[in-house]
Structures are given as C-alpha cells and as structure tokens.
Design brief:
The chain is mostly helical. The protein has 7 helices and 3 strands. It has a 3-stranded antiparallel β-sheet with strand order 1-3-2. The protein starts with a helix and ends with a helix.
Length: about 180
Amino acid sequence: MDSKKLKEFARIAKDAVAELEEPYRSIAFKEFLDRLLTEKQTQSIQEKIKSARPGTSQECSVAPAIETLCSKINRTDYPEIKILKKAKARALLVLKLARDEANSDGLTATQISDILDKLFRLRVTKYAINMALGEETVLVDRKPIRTKGGQAYVYRIMAPGEDYLANLMKVAKRNESE
C-alpha cells in the first residue's frame, strides 16, 4: 500500500472518531484504521486467490466481507456459543460455522473477532484469538499470509478441531443442565 492510500485511510479514520473524547478517540482511531486496512487486505487476498493456479498454496478461500458472512449465519440457531467460555472454543465454532453455513473455509483472527462481536455480541479480541489458536497445530490449520502491514494467519478448522468442539459442547450442555 502506498503512502497516499495510507494517508487517505488515516484521514477517514480520523474523521470517523473526531467527536469522541480521549482516550476513546485514540482507541477508536486505532481500531477503525485496523479494520479499514484489514478490509483492504481481504480484497487483495481474494484477488490473489482468483488469479492462483489450481494446486498452489494460495488456493484456500478467505472470507468475503464480514457483513456478507454474518448475513449467511443465523445466530439464533447457535445459542450454545454463550456457554463456551474460552476464546479457543468460540473461535473454533466460528470457523466451523463460516465453513458450513457460509462456504468460507478460512478466517483471520480479526475476522473471527469481528464475527463474534457483530453477530453474537461477544467481545473477544484478535489477540486472544491469535493466542488461543496460534499453537494449535492439531485442531486448526494455520497458513501465513503476507499483508501490507506485516504478517497474519488464516485459520481453518480441522477434523480433530470439530471433534474437540463437539466434546466441549456436550460437557458444557451437561454442566448447564445440572
């Protein structure tokens, strides 16, 4: 990303948070700018995926805009997400829902966090998602992607992750009914 686009994004973020008081303005500015850059990054990744040859490592699909993905998932069908207390369990459920309900196999930590926030009204930061899934080599597949701001990871749920999630759900439901 060139400096002109970065300045434009910074101006947009600044205008969006202008009416807030400190320290909220600084926090909101950073979050808003991060979301603008992530949205731009997702568009760039989708363009690369479309141009990739079959059989290359760029074949994994990254979610379209979060709003589109959220519109395909009916949150009332999944009340059990509220009984899952750990970021890892909630992230695994979002990965499974995105794949099964919205045909989106692979999300970044920011996208997972946004879905939890916008769709389920659960606050889990992208940092908590990265910490929870970062070392999980059995439950999720983690692929590095290059972004303009550095490096990020796309997480995809694996079969052991689905089994782990199913067991967690059974235990959580049993404990809730007691």
